[in-house]
Specification:
- The complex is a heterodimer of chains A (468) and B (387).
- With 468 residues, chain A is an all-alpha fold.
- Helices cover 71% and strands 0% of the residues of chain A.
- Chain A has 2 domains: 167 residues, no CATH class; 202 residues, no CATH class.
- The two termini of chain A are 15 Å apart.
- Chain B is an alpha/beta fold and 387 residues long.
- Chain B has a 5-stranded parallel beta sheet, sandwiched between helices. A two-stranded antiparallel ribbon of chain B has the order 1-2. A two-stranded antiparallel sheet of chain B has the order 3-4.
- Chain B is globular, with a radius of gyration of 24 Å.
- In chain B, 38% of the residues are buried.
- Classes of the chains: A mainly alpha (468), B alpha/beta (387).
- The interface between A and B is medium-sized, with 19 and 20 residues.
């Protein structure tokens, strides 16, 4: 199992001491060398695929920038997309499509058999493919005007902290930061350390403990647990995914910050969302904006009427679901969220929270949104659609009677999660809060260090988003 | 950190570090003054170990309490590969003494001798050693050290009238001899929270520190008297007292971890003199006890993965196995070099050792048995032929 907190920490510790004495080019080369070495440590073939994907995107991007006619630009974009997505599709989805085809033919009476293809699936392939594609896409769509120097582009693609599971930074934004020599700033060190620590706490304490003491046992056998435990595990999974992924993102953002680089935020307290659009503005922000900018808008967005907008959003979310993994469960997850968002578009006029009973309507909308989002997690965590149906049935009357494996641990995790979001609420509703109560915050961080040590589970859970 | 710039520019980082260090100090120095030792012991052991203690005391484990040696194999157990007879012996024969073979051998030692749970009874060293002439009683018991072998033999096993004793020695054989309470030496060994006796060696004589596991372990972790007793006699008690100070905060724990690593590494390089004195005295005593009952003793050194495969970091560390073997041979004990036997079999390490790198696969047991057969039979022939 790849231990990402440790790899990120090793990365920072290796880069940090020499980094500040180097020139801009030296800093970038040093980042590339360290990133590739550590990525290659997992499997030596991974950096080869990463560099191949980066070189294709870089070359096609530059050709787009240099092309004189729209036809040529389109041809180079299609080249970049087909090679990168073809590679991603082959490595990640070949077994899914072959399996689905076989199932379909068998169901209509044609008996076809096909062996699974054993392919090497590099860690984070979906993330680095999308990141490198932002370069030709932005140049084609006119979002970026200038070419990026080769070394800067390779530094951007290979930058280790965001390599495994994002955030999906855009080539233009991140390359801008890489085009200057980074200077050491104690403020960056402070922000980086606190972000890393918060991320570590979320991942190791909240996500892993929830997985060990609540989610994993119940999901494995929902029919043995009481209905209450099944509901608790479903909510627990939503919290676990959030803590797991936002924890990883925080660690990536913190590691980059220590080195004077800024990676875009990926989460903004999603469980404070009051509707589904709001949720996707807060959850996996870099991915949702990626799909919005490169799938939803090119499909026409909401410019062609409400009905077409609904079809577009559903199609975008199905693609987004498929991006998560090659399984019908993820397609279903995407479809559900597409329907949620379409519903949101149609009910916009009644959910603008203006007029009477505003607070009550906000609370009602918030609770419905959160419950429906948690319900959509059922196909997301289930191994198959049949397993999802079993779980959904258990939610509405489980035959089992077992209670939550460790109520204290689960309660502690939910409490920690509550404080995390309460902090988010304070940041949103009490401007300047983060600059006050420094000692209280410092005590919280010091306690996090001790608690993270004391309550690290024996067997850490792998990052959920690694499989994507 | 004392730079006013840091304090001003990164107040959160500065204060967080100060508070963290203050918490570390409070946990290390104020905690042990306020929290009872029994509470620390409860945290140190954890729920799994406490449950294993209860199982052991009520006789639900594969080992049962024993006043002589701390624990012994439970008789008539059959759990997958692990099968014992009415004597608690891991047998290959159908019934003790039934075959009326001319020579009876007894094997003593740890799970490396009895084969562990990874092999069947008929795949143990003792099973491979048995033939038409030889009957082997395998009394190897999980985690037994030389002192326990001696005590069991002295108290009861001599009664089986074995002509030859084969006693297994592991390559790091002295730690267990200085330990009374297993969790203090091996905290991760949650399934074996047992208490054993030990010998203290001073002025050239051995002094027994006896235990009564049933009495002393009852009530763990509420056991002030046991902790006082262990504080006096267990060389690994400092692991527990260090845990009370440094087990709850990351910085202190990291420092402690590094200290232990440095100490364990220094053990390789410090002068050898006196290190194996206790082991040698016990071996000497074992030979005397056996001779008293008309038996001879063959010791067998049993290597683990690190002894067999001396690549990587092991290349740069002194060869403890060879050093121990040299010391034992210098005292004229009859000792079989298990490592030489295994290496000369030309079998790959993966075929010899199980995944834990300690216990042997059937192929290794066969090799060791062959090496033992030669020496045991030669000695037997010499004895039967007379002067």
């Amino acid at each position: 199992m790849v231990n990402i907190p440790v790899i990120c920490l090793i990365f920072v510790l290796l880069v940090f001491p020499f980094y500040w004495r180097l020139t801009r080019l030296g800093q970038n080369l040093w980042l590339i060398a360290t990133s590739l070495a550590l990525y290659g440590w997992i499997d030596w073939r991974f950096p080869c695929l990463l560099l191949f994907s980066a070189l294709v995107s870089f070359s096609c991007g530059n050709k787009i920038a240099a092309a004189s006619s729209p036809k040529q630009r389109k041809a180079w974009l299609l080249g970049a997309l087909s090679i990168n997505l073809g590679l991603l599709g082959y490595l990640k989805y070949v077994n899914f499509f072959v399996g689905s085809f076989v199932a379909l033919t068998n169901s209509v009476g044609w008996h076809v058999s096909a062996a699974s293809v054993h392919v090497l699936l590099p860690v984070g392939i979906s993330f680095f493919t999308f990141q490198s594609l932002t370069y030709p896409l932005d140049l084609y769509l006119g979002r970026a005007k200038e070419r990026v120097p080769f070394i800067t582009f390779i530094t951007y693609v290979t930058f280790l902290p965001k390599l495994f599971a994002g955030p999906i930074a855009r080539a233009g934004e991140f390359s801008e930061a890489l085009s200057h020599k980074r200077q050491f700033r104690i403020e960056d060190l402070q922000e980086g350390c606190t972000r890393f620590l918060t991320g570590y706490f979320k991942k190791i304490i909240i996500a892993d403990n929830l997985a060990a003491y609540l989610v994993n046992p119940v999901i494995a056998d929902p029919n043995s647990y009481s209905t209450g435990a099944v509901w608790a595990a479903m909510f627990g999974y939503a919290v676990q995914v959030y803590a797991d992924f936002s924890g990883y993102s925080s660690m990536a953002i913190g590691s980059a910050k220590v080195l004077g680089l800024t990676i875009p935020e990926n989460f903004n307290f999603p469980f404070l969302a009051v509707n589904f659009s709001d949720f996707w503005r807060r959850w996996h922000i870099t991915m949702s904006t990626f799909f919005r900018d490169y799938v939803y808008f090119p499909l026409g967005g909401s410019r062609k009427g409400r009905a077409r907008a609904s079809i577009n959003v559903i199609a975008t979310m199905v693609v987004c679901g498929l991006w998560h993994g090659a399984a019908w469960t993820f397609v279903t997850f995407g479809l559900i969220h597409g329907l949620y968002l379409a519903m949101n578009q149609w009910t916009k006029h009644i959910s603008d929270f203006k007029g009477r009973y505003r607070q009550l309507r906000v609370i009602l909308s918030w609770s419905c949104t959160q419950v429906l989002i948690c319900l959509s997690m059922v196909p997301f965590f289930s191994v198959s659609l049949a397993a999802a149906v079993v779980y959904l049935r258990a939610l509405f009357g489980s035959p089992g009677s077992l209670s939550i494996p460790s109520q204290t641990a689960a309660l502690f995790c939910f409490l920690a999660f509550f404080f995390d979001h309460f902090y988010g609420w304070l940041l949103a509703h009490r401007p300047g809060f983060e600059k006050r109560y420094i000692t209280v915050q410092a005590t919280a961080y010091a306690s996090i260090i001790i608690l993270s040590y004391l309550f690290t589970p024996d067997k850490p859970n792998p990052f959920i988003y690694f499989q994507f | 950190m004392d730079n006013p710039g840091v304090r001003r520019k990164a107040p959160l980082l500065f204060r967080a570090i100060c508070i963290w260090l203050a918490l570390e100090l409070a946990i290390a120095f104020i905690g042990p003054l306020c929290i009872p030792k029994s509470q620390y012991l409860s945290w140190y052991l954890g729920s799994k170990t406490l449950m294993a203690t209860r199982k052991f005391l009520v006789g639900n484990a594969v080992l049962v309490p024993d006043k002589v040696a701390g624990w012994r194999n439970k008789p008539n157990v059959a759990i997958r590969n692990w099968v014992t007879d009415a004597q608690g012996c891991r047998f290959a024969h159908q019934q003790l003494g039934l075959a009326k073979k001319p020579m009876r051998i007894m094997m003593l030692g740890s799970s490396m001798v009895n084969g562990g749970t990874g092999v069947r009874n008929d795949q143990t060293i003792s099973a491979y050693l048995e033939d038409d002439q030889v009957e082997v009683l395998n009394f190897g018991t999980m985690m037994y050290s030389m002192d326990q072998c001696l005590l069991r033999y002295r108290a009861e096993l001599y009664k089986y009238g074995a002509r030859e004793l084969i006693v297994g020695i592991e390559s790091g054989p002295t730690d267990g001899l200085k330990n009374l309470y297993v969790p203090f030496r091996m905290r991760d060994e949650a399934n074996m929270p047992y208490l054993k006796p030990r010998f203290e060696f001073s002025g050239g004589s051995l002094k027994l520190v006896p235990v009564d596991p049933e009495l002393q372990l009852t009530g763990v972790p509420q056991c002030r008297e046991l902790l006082e007793f262990l504080g006096k006699h267990d060389d690994f008690y400092p692991h527990f007292s260090d845990y009370c100070r440094t087990g709850f905060s990351p910085l202190a724990a990291s420092c402690q971890f590094l200290t232990y690593k440095a100490l364990s590494l220094s053990g390789y390089f410090l002068p050898e003199k006196g290190r194996n004195d206790l082991l040698l005295a016990l071996m000497d005593q074992m030979v005397k006890e056996a001779r008293k009952h008309g038996a001879g003793v063959v010791f067998v050194m049993l290597p683990v993965q690190a002894d067999l495969d001396r690549r990587g970091v092991h290349r740069f560390l002194p060869d403890v196995y060879a050093r121990t073997l040299r010391t034992i041979r210098a005292r004229n004990f009859v000792v079989v070099d298990g490592r030489r036997a295994l290496l000369s079999s030309n079998e790959p390490a993966s075929q010899l050792l199980s995944e834990d790198g300690i216990h042997y696969r059937p192929a290794a047991n066969k090799v060791i048995a062959n090496a033992l057969r030669t020496i045991v039979k030669t000695r037997y022939l010499k004895e039967t032929e007379g002067p």
